[in-house]
Structure formats: C-alpha cells, structure tokens
Amino acid sequence: MRRRIPITVIFVVGQFIAFFLDGSISQILSGTLYRYPNSLVPALTLLWLVLAVFFGDRKKLHLGIWAAVIGFIFDMYYTGLLGVYVFIFPLVIYLCQSVYQMLPPNFMSGFLVYFLGITVWTTLGFIANAFIGQTSSSLAQYLVNTLAPTLAINLVFMALAYFPVASLYRSHRR
C-alpha cells in the first residue's frame, strides 16, 4: 500500500519551489524580462498561493498565515525592505478568496481573480516603492511598462499551471 503525502506538505514544498523559481527565472532571464523600458515581473509565489485559494482547503492550509510568512521571507530575500510584502501577500490572498467565493469555480473565474490579484500585488508594491522614494516612474510609465507586461507573463504562467495544480489538489481529496 502506498502512503500519500499530505496536501499541507505538498503546499509548503510547492510554495518554496515557487519562491525560488521567482528569483531564478528573474536572474536567468533578466536580459529579456527587464529590458528597458519594460519590466516583466514573475509572481510564481503569488500564483501558488492563489491556486491554493482556488483548489485547497482554506482551513487546513492556513493561507493567510502562509501568505504573511512567505511575504516576510520575500521581503528579506528579494527586497531587503521588511514590511511591504508581509502585508501585501495576505491582503491579496484575502481579496482573491473573497472575490472567488462570489464567482462560479471555473478557469475563467480563476483567470479573472488572478488578474485582479496580480494587479493589486504589483500596484501596492509600486505605491510602497514610490512612497519611500525607490522609484521615479510616473503612473503612466508604471501602467504601460510594468503592470501590463507583468500581467501578460503571469497570466500565461497561470494558464499553464491551472489544470496541473487542479489535478494535484483533486487527487489528494480522495
């Protein structure tokens, strides 16, 4: 008889894989992703959390707590500025949970919710950086050169990951 790995373990391992893939993809493809004037920011960490909102057991996975933990680690590892993503990740997860509950559970609803999540995540990050003087971009530059390309790449990632992750979570419900 085969022992099954609990979904909570799969979630945590997947979260850290997504976290490190964010940085690895950014580093390996930096010449393409960050070619002036555009920035395509991969958000696989957020994608994994949002897919857990869609398919996982919210009470068993404790997504709000994990969003804060991964936000803290994200701040320490990638930004060096503590406090920004500690609040942004849980806020986006809460928003995605709230909106997704009002919609029928299907791919298009998930696509819309992830679109909203990436928009809020990127915009709050931009506002925080503008507030502390880390960016000098105008709102128009941000919308055209950062938000639009970031949405494009992350929605492609979401389309590619949606069904495999759905089947992963579905196989652990039985």
TrEMBL record:
The gene is mreD. InterPro entries: Cell_shape_determining_MreD. It comes from Lentilactobacillus hilgardii (strain ATCC 8290 / DSM 20176 / CCUG 30140 / JCM 1155 / KCTC 3500 / NBRC 15886 / NCIMB 8040 / NRRL B-1843 / 9). The keyword Membrane applies. It is a multi-pass membrane protein. GO terms for biological process: regulation of cell shape. Belongs to the MreD family. The chain crosses the membrane at residues 7-30, 36-54, 84-103, 110-131, 151-169. The keyword Transmembrane helix applies. It is found in: Cell membrane. One of its GO terms (cellular component) is plasma membrane. Keywords: Cell membrane, Cell shape, Membrane, Transmembrane, Transmembrane helix. This is Rod shape-determining protein MreD.
